[in-house]
Amino acid sequence: MAKSFLTSLDVRAIAQPYMVAIRDQLQQSVNLFLAQGDYRICIERVAADKPLRHDIKIGTVYPIFKGAAGKIFGAYLGDFKDADMSAGESSQIRHDGYVVTRGSRVPDAASIAVPIFSFGNKLEAVMTISGPIGDYTEERVKEYLSVMMALGQTISKQMGATL
């Protein structure tokens, strides 16, 4: 019965209040992606309230391997092969538990992505923050990472992961 309950949890509903908290604390836009075949889809979005921001719309579809979220999907989904990512980079991402990109998909934007796991420690989704590249100094990235890593683990545990 517990397994049935855990597999029915809605990652979007669980993550959304945390996404608002991250946006409010870090002043960065927060996105949640699911994998669907060779693509990833934005299923939730909480935009930063500032004039310069990286804007994505809910329902937007991207190639699975593009950007910070794509690197997480590429590292954790064994049935996908990303020609742009080496086995060493994939292994490093799994070891670190995050990805930071600057100008990867959009030249003047930066992102940090963390995996969200569910029951059985299965990759369920990827949560990102994104914004203007100037916001992603080394000092700020350290702050952003501590928040993202902690909340990624919190959401994962609520999804039934045993990290």
Short key terms for the protein model shown above:
163 residues; alpha+beta; disordered N terminus
Structure in words:
A hairpin with a 6-residue loop joins β4 and β5. The N terminus is likely disordered. By secondary structure, the chain is α+β, with helices and mostly antiparallel strands. A six-stranded antiparallel sheet has the order 3-2-1-6-5-4, with helices on both faces. The chain is globular, with a radius of gyration of 15 Å. The protein is built from five helices and six strands, in the order ααβββααβββα. The longest helix is centred in the last third of the chain and has 21 residues. α2 runs antiparallel to α5.
Describe the structure in brief:
Helix content is 39%, strand content 27%. By secondary structure, it is of the alpha+beta class.
Q: What is the percent of helical residues?
A: 25-40%
Structural class: alpha+beta
**How do the SSEs run, as a string of H and E?**
HHEEEHHEEEH
**Adjacency order of strands in the biggest sheet:** 3-2-1-6-5-4
Main beta sheet, described? Answer: 6 strands, antiparallel
**Roughly what fraction of the amino acids lie in strands?**
25-35%
- The average pLDDT value, as a whole number, equals 86
How many strand elements? Answer: 6
Multimeric state: single chain
Principal-axis shape: globular
Q: Count helical runs.
A: 5
Residue windows where pLDDT falls under 50 for at least 5 positions: 1-8
The N- and C-terminal alpha carbons lie at a distance of 21 Å
Q: Give the C-alpha Rg.
A: 15 Å
